[in-house]
Amino acid sequence: MNKAIIGKKIGITQIFDEDGHVVPVTVIQAGPCVVSCKKTKEKHGYSAVQLGFGKANIRNMNRPQSEFFDKIGIEPVKILKEFRISNIDAMNVGDFVKVNIFSVGENVDVTGTSKGKGWAGVIKRWNFRRLRETHGTGPVGRHGGSIGQCSDPSRVFKGLKSAGHLGHERVTVQNLKVVKICEDKNLIAIKGSVPGPKGSIVYIKDTVKFVKKEGA
């Protein structure tokens, strides 16, 4: 990973490309993010930077949090996220990372928390088929069916698909194309859908390209 930024999902819209084709995009307010911490291989064993996004109220922070920002000399931020970036030599604590680190046409990976949909049955959660709607089916047409075992193994295996909490999971969508960048408003338009509802926090990283070694 060579570059990353924190953003807030604004919503979805559509724009037209040079050929007049409609392109569905997700608009994200990306940055500006402040570098709040820097880790090196010599001291910490790996290279990474910690970015901060969004203004925070000092009254809502505990003492260790407020002392951390006072020590590094930056304004308090709401979101702190560490990224393992390889080239951190040009970054220093207090520097700002803006949306112009990305370019139009570049592929990125976007990570966010998907929409929470509460408790869901097996049909909605796992795409189960319901029972036939005939006489005698009773009130169990959308149930998952029997999960009982005979004398062997006499138990229910772990990981059985059943009803439960749906959504609100960490999701990463890869290889999304950057369609448009608005530097003055810190906006980036990415083709396709991005996980999470409006106003949720997302993390944008450049897509890592794996090169196949010779003889592999």
Summed up:
With 216 residues, the chain is mostly beta strands. It has helices at residues 41-44, 63-72, 122-126, and strands at 4-16, 22-30, 33-39, 48-55, 77-83, 96-97, 107-113, 116-120, 164-167, 170-182, 187-191, 201-206. The protein is 9% helix and 40% strand.
End-to-end distance, in Å? 23 Å
**Neighbour order of strands in the largest sheet:** 1-2-11-10-7-12
Shape: extended
Instruction: Name the poorly predicted regions.
Output: none
Question: Can you describe this structure?
Answer:
- This protein has helices spanning 41-44, 63-72, 122-126, and strands at 4-16, 22-30, 33-39, 48-55, 77-83, 96-97, 107-113, 116-120, 164-167, 170-182, 187-191, 201-206.
- Helices cover 9% and strands 40% of the residues.
- The protein starts with a strand and ends in a 10-residue tail after the last strand.
- The longest helix is centred in the N-terminal third of the chain and has 10 residues, at 63-72.
- The strands form three sheets. Strands 1-2-11-10-7-12 form a six-stranded antiparallel beta barrel. A four-stranded antiparallel beta sheet has the order 5-4-3-6.
- The chain has a domain at 117-167: Ribosomal protein L3, domain 3 (Irregular).
- The chain is mainly beta and 216 residues long.
- It is built from three helices and twelve strands; from the N terminus they run βββαβαββββαββββ.
Tags for this model:
six-stranded antiparallel beta barrel; Ribosomal protein L3, domain 3; 216 residues; mainly beta; four-stranded antiparallel beta sheet
